[in-house]
Design a protein that fits this description.
alpha+beta; 2 domains; 23% helix; EC 7.1.1.9; Immunoglobulin-like
């Protein structure tokens, strides 16, 4: 220590290094705890939803229930959701602000996002990435239902849809670019 009792330059450097290491450790740990690819621990099995970004709408496929929707998803509250996300064309960004977790949708790539809703309600979902002239209307609704029975009712309603998504021809029709596309349901025999 110098005679005036002030901290010297070397001591200041050590303090700054210690603070930097502490902040780096906190950031590293927090980032890995909140990793969107990390499964959410729960006694309930996750609802699997495949997400495909189309021009300018969202296609949601529920492989465990043989249904698909455009611009609407639903899930029971307090049940983990596993999203497998990709894009049919340009890069996009899947985002449900009230549930957290924004992640990119890119052609030829599979992104994974785990979310859970702790309360019932309807949440706005959006594309958070400019993707062309229909971008501003690329919105969807995410419905958090009260329980598994309500979710089963929603699934059964969609299974009654006369529209199907059975083959590549059906997919080509729905993947045709459209702006402000309405909600649509597809069943599979």
């Amino acid at each position: 220590m110098n005679p005036q009792g002030l901290i010297g330059l070397e001591e200041k450097k050590l303090i700054l290094i210690a603070i930097s290491l502490m902040l780096t450790t906190i950031t590293w740990n927090s980032t890995h705890i909140l990793d969107p690819k990390k499964e959410i621990e729960s006694s309930n099995s996750a609802v699997n939803i495949q997400v495909i970004s189309l021009d300018w709408k969202w296609l949601f496929i529920y492989p465990d229930y043989n249904i698909a929707t455009i611009n609407e998803i639903a899930f029971p509250k307090n049940v983990p959701i596993k999203f497998n996300i990709t894009s049919n064309s340009v890069m996009n960004s899947f985002f449900i602000p009230q549930l957290g977790g924004q992640i990119y949708a890119m052609a030829g790539m599979n992104s994974i996002l785990h979310l859970i809703s702790n309360s019932t309600g309807k949440y706005k979902g959006i594309s958070a990435n400019f993707s062309g002239p229909g971008f501003s209307g690329m919105k969807f609704i995410a419905i958090s239902l009260a329980d598994k029975n309500s979710f089963d009712d929603w699934i059964q309603n969609i299974q009654k849809s006369p529209k199907t998504l059975e083959n590549i021809q059906d997919y080509k029709i729905i993947s045709t670019p459209s702006v402000n596309h309405p909600v649509e349901y597809f069943s599979r025999d």
